Amino acid sequence: MVIASSYGQRPEAGVFAGGSFYNGDINPGQPFGQTRGGFGLVYRHNLDTRLALKASVFRGGLESSEEQYAVRPFRAASFSGTVTDVAVTAEFNFLDFFIGSSKNNFSPFLFGGAGYYFYNGDYSAVEGGGSYSSTGFAVPFGAGLKYSLTKTIGVALEWGYRKTFNDGLDGLAENYPVNGNNNLYGVQMSNAVTNDWYSFAGVSFTLDLSIFKTEVCRDQQRF
């Protein structure tokens, strides 16, 4: 399709603002529990009106505490830190959509892809505490809604989870260490079978970079 093909040459770039939260041993299932602020940068390359590739760098806070969720109160565990998330995702629009379209000025979408994270934090528990860091691959996926705010500016609401492949975001060891509480030495402290997750949710504003081109397809503008 000529229109869809020409639209693929109209990239977008912008900013993201929202929140981030953690799910893991301390908070195993409550979405948006102890959400902290997040922000980032977004670049989107539209392959056509249905498919796009997005590169993003998000940064946000993660925290959780046993006082809030009481999964295992005797651990007295808590942590807080900052995660930097770098991801490339593919997006699928349910409707033919692009910034400035007069036919569909909004569309729900799904996304999924691959990413990598860098995390630094501090934790405390019944056996002690300290500072630590964690890095690794993540699988981002989620859903959202795009809207053409003007002929050149688009807005997208999104909520996405990141599945990690380790259990290190909360700083908890698999078992209580020998130099901790001797009555608990060797007792399981965290569930090593399940890995930690983190999530970003928020809004992004992007600018259609084709405004810097001298020519824009007239048929595309009417689509």
Q: Could you provide a short overview of the structure?
A:
With 223 residues, the protein is mainly beta. It is built from 3 helices and 8 strands.
What does this structure look like?
The protein has one domain (2-222): Porin. It is built from three helices and eight strands. It has helices at 2-7, 66-69, 218-222; strands at 12-23, 36-46, 51-65, 78-93, 106-125, 128-148, 153-164, 197-208. It has an eight-stranded antiparallel barrel with strand order 1-2-3-4-5-6-7-8.
Q: What would the keywords be for this entry?
A:
single chain, 223 residues, mainly beta, Porin, 3 helices, 8 strands, disordered N terminus, disordered C terminus
CATH topology: Porin
Instruction: Give the neighbour order of strands across the main sheet.
Output: 1-2-3-4-5-6-7-8
Task: Enumerate how many helices there are, as a single number.
Answer: 3
Report the order of strands and helices. Answer: HEEEHEEEEEH
CATH class: Mainly Beta
How many β-strands, per DSSP? 8
Molecular shape = elongated
Q: Major sheet, described briefly?
A: 8 strands, antiparallel, barrel
Query: Which architecture does the CATH hierarchy give at level 2?
Result: Beta Barrel
Overall residue-averaged pLDDT value: 87
Query: From the helix content, strand content and strand pairing, which structural class follows?
Result: mainly beta
